[in-house]
Every structure is written in structure tokens, then in C-alpha cells.
Amino acid sequence: VQAHLRRFLGGTSTVADLDKKARLGDPRLEYFPFWAFTVVAKGGEKVVLQPAAPSSLQGLQGIELPAGHTRPMRSDETGDTPVVEPEVPLETAREWLTVRHGDVSVRQTVLYHLPLFKTPYRWQGRTYQAAVDGVSGKVFPSDFPAKAEAPFVGVAILALIVFGLEGLLIQNIIVKLAAYLVSAPPILGIAWLTSRKV
User: Fold this and answer.
1) Whose CA, among 60, 98, 160, 195, lies 20 to 30 Å from 176?
2) pTM, rounded to two decimals
3) What is the CB-side half-sphere exposure of residue 149 using CA atoms within 13 A?
4) DSSP strand pairing (126-133 vs 139-141)
5) Environment class of 113 (CB within 10 Å of its CB; exposed 0-12, middle 13-18, buried 19+)
6) Which stretches within the chain are classed as H helix?
7) HSE-up of 124 (CA within 13 Å, CB side)?
8) Quick count: other Cβ atoms within 10 Å of Cβ 184?
9) Measured between alpha carbons, how far is 122 from 145 in angstroms, rounded to an integer?
10) Is 146 within 8 Å of 14 (Cβ atoms)?
């Protein structure tokens, strides 16, 4: 669980070095409910999942049914692990399905509970939450320290100014191309440093 979460924290959408600086808490397993609709599509049948309970986790709407064995939900299977009860009525989930996929033909509807490891982590004095799919290892964050956009916008503005001035002030096409070639490496270097530091 921690390895999957650290890979996500070290990705391109989070702040730099979050995977090294974040302090991960203990993962807590729970079984989260999903309505699974087997729909008839052009290429055959496919299973579409809709969350059957409210959650702040991002990405649950687009989750796919992971490969694996299914078993009936029994207390001897789940033990003391919390099982989240479905709160979203089947009719509401069908409406969501229609909104997202149009008027599809539903062949079968099943209620699944997928194992999710809820894991808190701390960074700069604040606690964040994420969950790791116990089958596929996919990470679903509730919120996370994202990269700031302002530095990247600054680099883009710098590039526009430099290339724009060169384009306006230099009339000779050969000299203009040479100026572009000279200006591009420093700007690319600044962009690379920004992506490493932010």
C-alpha cells in the first residue's frame, strides 16, 4: 500500500519530493460499495461501476472493475474489517449511468464491495487522505498538495516575451532562427528546474 501511495506522491501532479517528505500513516482497510452495471456496448459487453456511497475520493466515478475473484460478502470473509453500507439508491445510480453513457441496455446489476486501504499522510503540518485499491493498487486521493501553477505560467510568459521580441526585432529569417536556437536551451532549462523545484 505504501509503495503504491509513494509512487503517486512522486508523480507529476504533486509538489516536488512529496514522496520523500510526506509521513505516511497506517493504512486502514475497508470494503467500499459500487453498483456494477453490465451494459451492452458496440464492442460487446462491459462493466461500468458507480459508487454506491458518498466519498471525497477523486476518481471513483471512473474506476474499472479490477480483475480478480469475487466472493459473497459474509462476516467470515470480512472479519472485523468495516463494510461501508450502500447509501446511493439503485435508481439514482442508473440515472448517473444514463448521464455518463447515454441510453444503454443494462443486462445485469450487481452490488460489489471493493477493498480500499484508506491511508492518511502528513506534509508541512497538514493531514491529507488517500486510498489504495487493494486489488489493482490504483491510488484515489481526496486532496493532495498539487504543484503551483504560477511558476509554470511565469516560464510560459518569459518564453512568449523572449520569442516574441526576437520575432519582431529581427527581420532576417536566418538570424531569427539562430536567435531562437540560442534562446530555447536556457528557457527549457528554466522550465526543467521549475518542474524539479515546485
Assistant:
1) 195
2) 0.68
3) 0
4) antiparallel
5) buried
6) 2-9, 18-21, 75-78, 90-101, 150-169, 173-197
7) 7
8) 13
9) 10
10) yes
